[in-house]
Each structure stands twice: as structure tokens, then as C-alpha cells.
Design brief:
By secondary structure, the chain is of the alpha/beta class. 43% of the residues lie in helices and 15% in strands. The protein has a seven-stranded mixed sheet with strand order 1-7-6-2-5-3-4, sandwiched between helices. α4 links the parallel β3 and β4. It catalyses: a 1-acyl-sn-glycero-3-phosphate + an acyl-CoA = a 1,2-diacyl-sn-glycero-3-phosphate + CoA.
Length: 244
């Protein structure tokens, strides 16, 4: 078992190095379309290295232009979503400190936000509206932190205003990680005192994971209030996960 874990860790390190090289040598001159293809391809391969099989739940198509919101379970979430359709993410500042991966997601266009920093929030909000106005796909985790599987925390409403100002729909995305029997996978939760390294070791050393992603019906933002959008997105995701 230790040999298998060491081999998986070595493959992960090699894949991370490949990502570093791509970001350093290719991203500076690559256009948006090429960047998205590279991000999607790298994310798919990362899931493969981690023995995570992506399963699309039948339902709505993934919109190419929308404000995407999802429940937040693990550091894997960003890569599961990017494997389907790359997004520009807004994520908590703590992610930037993750070894190597934090730098990689920053190079992929992720914007980091510090909790309680209103000035930072205003600046990021303006950037989101501009990105959405340029027909880019933007995503964030409105819970503001990771939650145990089976739980969807209340959604913070502030950033939903960007969809209203940019006149784009909100598309909820429900994420779940299950084992071979269809139950919540015990290795994926990233809460409490679990460190990033602890999480990687648990995932690589545990049983294979199935990541289920469900794109839900878009919610029109025109004429809505940000709190209404946040609650509607929360209820849609909770319902898709059987928590409604």
C-alpha cells in the first residue's frame, strides 16, 4: 500500500511540474481559447492521477456565459468544474497558500478574496462584472468555506449582484463525491483541522472516487435581488443533493 501511495504521489508531483512549466512558458503568450483548452486538459488529467472519475449527472447543459455557483467540499472542486468547462474563479485567500496548486490556480485566472475585506470585495466585484460583460464564465463558492458532504451551508449573497449588473443568468452546479457503493466518499471532506497535504494523502491512499457534477437550470438575474438569487441557487443545489 505504501508503494502504491508513493507511486501516486510521484505521478501527482510530475503532473504539477508539468502545470508549472505550462504556466511559465505557454500562458504568457497564449490567448484565452488556448488557455481554456490547456486548463481543461490539465484538470482532466489531474483527476485521473488522483483516481477521480468525473460523472456528469443528466440535466441542463453547462452554459458558456453565466455566473456559476457551486457547493464547496474539497480542493478538487475547482478542477472538477474546470474539467467540464473552464471558469475564472473567485476563491478564498487561503487557497493561494496551498503548496504549488495555489500558484497554479492563480495562473489560471483565479481571484482570491480575504474574508471581511470590504475594499477587496468592491474591487473584485467590479472585475467580475467586467469579466461577465466580456462573455467570460465566472464561478465562485457562495458558502465561503468547505462543508461536509450532505451539508449545504447558507450562501453569502454579495457577489450575486455581479450577475444582475452584467445581465447574465446564474447557473447552480451541485457537486458530490461518492464511493463504489454510492455513499459519500470518506476521503474527500476537507473540513476542520484537515490540511491540504493530509487531504491529498487521504485521497491518493483511499479508494477511487466518483465526482458527480450536475449542471442545474439557470436562474434569470434580470429584476431579481441578490438575496433572492442566492436563496434560489442554494435551494436548487440542496435539492439536487437530496437535502431540500
Amino acid at each position: 500500500m505504501k508503494i502504491k501511495l508513493a507511486w501516486r504521489l510521484a505521478r501527482l508531483v510530475l503532473h504539477l511540474v508539468q502545470g508549472l512549466v505550462t504556466c511559465a512558458l505557454v500562458f504568457p503568450w497564449a490567448g484565452d481559447a488556448l488557455r481554456e483548452r490547456l486548463i481543461q486538459r490539465w484538470s482532466v488529467r489531474l483527476l485521473g492521477v488522483c483516481r477521480v472519475r468525473l460523472e456528469r449527472v443528466p440535466g441542463e447543459d453547462s452554459l458558456a456565459h453565466a455566473l456559476i455557483v457551486a457547493n464547496h467540499i474539497s480542493w478538487l472542486d475547482i478542477f472538477v468544474i474546470n474539467a467540464v468547462h473552464p471558469c475564472r474563479f473567485v476563491a478564498k485567500a487561503e487557497i493561494r497558500a496551498w503548496p504549488v496548486v495555489g500558484w497554479l490556480v492563480a495562473q489560471a485566472g483565479t481571484v482570491f478574496i480575504a474574508r471581511g475585506n470590504r475594499r477587496d470585495l468592491r474591487h473584485i466585484f467590479k472585475g467580475l462584472v467586467e469579466a461577465l460583460g466580456q462573455r467570460r464564465r465566472v464561478a465562485f463558492f457562495p458558502e465561503g468555506t468547505t462543508a461536509s458532504q450532505g451539508t449545504v451551508l447558507p450562501f453569502h449573497a454579495n457577489l450575486f449582484e455581479a450577475a444582475i449588473d452584467a445581465a447574465v443568468p446564474v447557473q447552480p452546479v451541485a457537486l458530490a463525491y461518492v464511493d463504489a457503493d454510492g455513499g459519500w466518499h470518506p476521503a474527500v471532506d476537507y473540513t476542520g483541522e484537515t490540511t491540504f497535504v493530509d487531504s491529498i494523502v487521504r485521497i491518493l491512499g483511499g479508494e477511487p472516487v466518483v465526482a458527480r457534477l450536475a449542471c442545474l437550470a439557470p436562474i434569470p438575474a434580470a429584476g431579481a435581488h441578490r438575496r433572492e438569487l442566492a436563496q434560489a441557487a442554494h435551494d436548487a443545489i440542496a435539492g439536487a443533493l437530496g437535502q431540500g
